[in-house]
Write a structure and sequence with these properties.
Strand 4, helix 6 and strand 5 form a beta-alpha-beta unit. The two termini are 27 Å apart. Helix 2 packs parallel to helix 16, helix 4 crosses helix 5 and helix 12 crosses helix 15. The strands form two sheets. Strands 1-3-2-4-5-6-7 form a seven-stranded mixed β-sheet, with helices on one face. Strands 10-9-8-11-12-13 form a six-stranded parallel β-sheet, sandwiched between helices. It has two domains: 219 residues, Rossmann fold; 183 residues, Glycogen Phosphorylase B (Rossmann fold), CATH 3.40.50.2000. It contains 16 helices and 13 strands. With 418 residues, it is an alpha/beta fold. Bound molecules: uridine-5'-diphosphate.
Amino acid sequence: MLEQVKIGRYCCAPSTQIENFRPLVGDDMIDELRELAKDLSSIRICNINATPFGGGVAELLSREIPILKALGVQADWRIIHGDQEFFSITKSFHNAIQGQEFELTDDIKDIYIRHNRKSAELLTSEYDVFIVHDPQPAALRYFNKHKKGKWIWRCHIDSSAPDEGVWNFIKPYVESYDAVVFTLKEFVPPGLKVSVQEYILPAIDPFSSKNMELPGEVYRNAVANSGVDLKRPLIVQVSRFDPWKDPLGVIQAYQLVKREKNDVQLAMIGSLAGDDPEGYEILSRVNEESSRDPDIYVFTNLEGVGNMEVNSFQRAADVVIQKSIREGFGLVVSEALWKETPVVAGNVGGIRTQIPEEMQGFLVSSVEGCAASLLRLLNDSPLRREFGKKGREKVRKEFLYPRMIRDNLRLVKRIISS
Ligand code: UDP
C-alpha cells in the first residue's frame, strides 16, 4: 500500500472539533456539515498527493484529514513514491501546466508513467473514493487495476493555459476520472472532457498553530528573537522558493521601497518541499541577493522555521507581500488577512478572490506597482488597519475550513450516488 501520512492524535484534539467553528461560520454551515458527515460515515476516502510537507496541498490535508476524522468521516492521506528524477519531471509538469514551455521527450513520459504505474500497483481496493491531488499522481486512476471506487482529480494550480505537449500527455489520464475539481472555473484547461466539473476554493484553519491567536508579546518576541528590528517597518513574504512566486521580483520591489524608506526590512520565509528540487536553486539565488543587504532576512523550514514562526511573522508584519505571477489560490493571502495584516499581491488567479473589494487596488502586476502599493500602506497605518479588518471579515465569511470541507463532502456525496 502507498505510505500513509500519520496525523497522530490530532483528530482527538480540541482544535479539530467542528463545534469550535460554529461561532465563526454559523449554525447552517455546521449543521449541514454534520448531516453530510452522517450520510458519508460508511464511505472510506483516500486523499493522495506527492508530499507530506511543504506547499499548500500538504497544508490543506494536514488539517482537513483530522477534522474529517473528528467529524466521523473515514478519510486517509497517502503519498506516492518518487525519486529526485521523478520529482524534477513533475515539477516541470507543474510549471508547464501553469503555462511554461516544456520539451516533452519519450524518456520523460516513460519515467512519469513508470512511477505512476508502480504507485497504482500499490493501491489496495479498500477505499470508496479516491481524491488525487495535482499532476504528480494524475495517472494513478488510469493505471489502477481495481475497478472499485470513484475517482476525483483535484487540480490546485492555474491550468487555464497549459503547455500543449504536456497537457495533451496528461489529459487522457485526467479524463479517466469520474470528476475533476479546479479552484476557479477559468482554470479548466482547453478541451477537457469529464462530465462532473466542480470549482472549490481552498480555505484556512483558524485554530491550527499557523493561524491561532497569539498574544502580542509572544509573536513579537518570536520575531525579535530572529534578529528583525520591530521598531522598523517590516515586509514579510511566506512562500516556497518558486519562480511563480517571483522571489527576485519581491526583492526588487523591496529595493525600490528602500530608496524612499531607508529603514524598511524584508523577511522571506520559504519552505523547501520534498517534491520540489527547483526550490533549492532559487533559494541560492535569493541568498546571493540577501547576502548584500543586512535588512533582508531569509528563513527556511530547514532551519526549523515552522508554523508558529510563520504565524508570528504574518502577525508582526506591517505588510505581507505575495507577488505571484501565477497562483492557484495562495493560502498565505488568507492566512495574513485572517491576522488583520494587509497584503500586496499579484493580480492573478485565486489571489484576486481573497482581497476585499475595496482593496483590489493593491493587486499588482509589476515591480514598480508593487513598490508603490507597499509604500502607500507602510506610510498609512489607518489604511493598514482598515485593510486588515476588511480582510479578516472576508476570510471569516468565505475562506474558513467548514465551507471548503462542506464543498468537498457535497461533491463526494454527489459522485457516490451517481
Ligand atoms: N508555508 C510554510 N512555511 C514556509 C512557506 C510556506 O508553512 O516557509 C506554508 C504557507 O503558510 C501556506 C502554504 O505553505 O500554508 C503555501 O500554500 P500556498 O497556497 O500559499 O502556495 P503553494 O505552496 O501551494 O503554491
